[in-house]
Design brief:
11 strands, D-Maltodextrin-Binding Protein, domain 2, 397 residues, three-stranded parallel beta sheet, alpha/beta, six-stranded mixed beta sheet
Length: 397
Amino acid sequence: MPWRRWRQLSSKASLWKALRNVHHFFLCDNDRCDIILAVFTVDCSELSILPDAVFLMEVASVKSGVLKILCLSLVALLLSVGGNGLCFARQLTIATATTGGTFYPVGAALATLISIKLAKSDGITAEAVTSAGSGENVRMLSDRECDLAILQGLYGAQAFHGRGEYREAPMREMAAVTMLWRNVEHFTLLSRYVLSATMADLKELRQPYSIGLPNSGTEGSGRVILAALGIEPGSDFTVRHLGYNSSIDAMQQGRIAGANIPGGVPVSAITQMYAMLGEKAAVLDFTDEQLAAVNREIPLWSRYLIAPGTYPGQKKEIRTLAQPNLLVASTALDEETVYIVTRTLYENLDFLNDIHPATKDMEIGKAMDGMPMPLHPGAARYFKEVGLEIPPRLNPR
């Protein structure tokens, strides 16, 4: 059953029938999911008797990462559906990216947390939606197609300050909520093309190479990095536009030499690459000189070391770069809602950490690290409340 049909269900009978169908799907994979679905009722009024501990305990017990995200999405969705239609006043839409990276699972975790904690007390639920990534998320914010979005720091800086592709049309109808985690660059390459094991190997590669989906944050940040290193897509290599999982499949089939796959460590597509290709593929290093070159125009990136064993069969440390990923809000979203959401995120970091290790980067002391735009008034209010000093450049507009 398509996910969007859940919100169209109105009668108790039809909702319970749908629940039974999904129950059988999950039960085939992991019987622990049966417990999650068993605690849901078809009447919103009965949700008040369910302790939050039930949700947290049972979701944490699911072993499969993909299955866990599906269960979390179901939790968030069911909390916004009731026996007599929608029970809650406000549903927030969070724009993420494709499912093979980190944006979507983290966005799904944020949506689930918001729905579990705020549906009953504040009438707020949330859903995570897929997109092409940061570029499309900026457009969705501009067109009021989402309330919150996850953006690469680079895209946030360029869009808000009118640089790069936004030079003629800055996007000022958004404000920062918090830094989420660092987006780690993974420029992959089949081992038969590896010479220095650094980014220099992409110079004069003369092979097909994926730089991400069109209008995605992956493509945008990748082009900035490559340009800073004197590497020209279309000249040094043939450009391909593939998503994360499709890129790994194409590498395995020999249709491309590698791909740009940034994300929060561990990135599921990179895990897949190491599991499928082993020593036949590698993630390229950045030298100190290459790091300095990338930061020359927009100083966003920092050194990031991926420890051996982070990915299956990874024997050597990977010396790469990272930039901050941000949660941003539409300026149309009211202060009180953003304040409540920000407070909820930081009061429940353990929940997020259990869903994706990338969120372990989140600490209240680092909430404003790498912010390329002013804060939303709601986020600023919470940070002041917990004793943080807001730099003048980040004061709400």
